[in-house]
Amino acid sequence: MDMTARPYRSVLYIPGSKDRALDKARTLPVDAIIFDLEDAVSPDAKVGARDTLKAALAEGGYGNRAKIIRINGLDSEWGAGDVEALRDADCDAFLLPKVNSAADVQALADLLGNGKPIWAMMETPLGILNALEIAAHPQLTGFVAGTNDLAKELNSRFRADRLPMQASLQMILLAARAHGVIAIDGVYNQFKDNDGLKVECDQGRDMGYDGKTLIHPAQVDVTNEAFAPSEAEIDLAKRQIAAFEETEASGQGVAVVDGKIVENLHVETAKKTLAKAAAIADLAG
User: Fold this and answer.
1) In the predicted structure, residue 1 carries a pLDDT above the cut 50
2) Is the pTM higher than 0.85?
3) Residues 144, 120: contact at Cβ < 8 Å?
4) Contacts of 277 (CB under 8 A, 6+ apart)
């Protein structure tokens, strides 16, 4: 499946050092997995985690889930070693933390040397300000908002409405859409608070994000539902397309659905809604 066309509703972080977690991930109804060698792995386990993860990916069993490896930063003592050990692993992309510029993406591209897609963690003020040039890199196919690290860098307070994050989230999304890049929202830290999670998912979806990163399997169902087209949206999309095609065929008047005019742009959105619903069904099937 095309990496940019497939669903990315739920993107779950899994520690690359834990055999049990790596095995459980094979059964979870997530659209994508970030196999994490950075924050989720303690310094004394980082070298060993490479072999653990490489063996799990070689064993397979992850089905249609997108497989993304988050390496340690290239400015750390582990980043280059992560790339050397896993550049040929069975994965769909490499995720680079704390990307500040397109030069950081190029540095990883040079180390990989195989054209593998690269995703960028957008979690620093400089990275946000340089989002457009980062998104323009030819090997860059995905953005992940690192809202926890960004909040620390900004010295912002937590608010349920995420007002301090809005400018950064919008800049990430604008750059992503300008260059056809996947955009994944940041994590929701209170993994037992489904109501709060739904509010944040709905906000991210309303903004235009493709999905959300998750820290716990308990968050998957809420997130999958929030970022999937609803039955009402699917029904509306079908009726808009039908009305527009009928009007075009007759050559008379304008298409109207539920008292609202249907134009080309609405039909394009409707077709994308149906395509996304079909892709989700294919992924599940």
Assistant:
1) no
2) yes
3) yes
4) 228, 229, 234
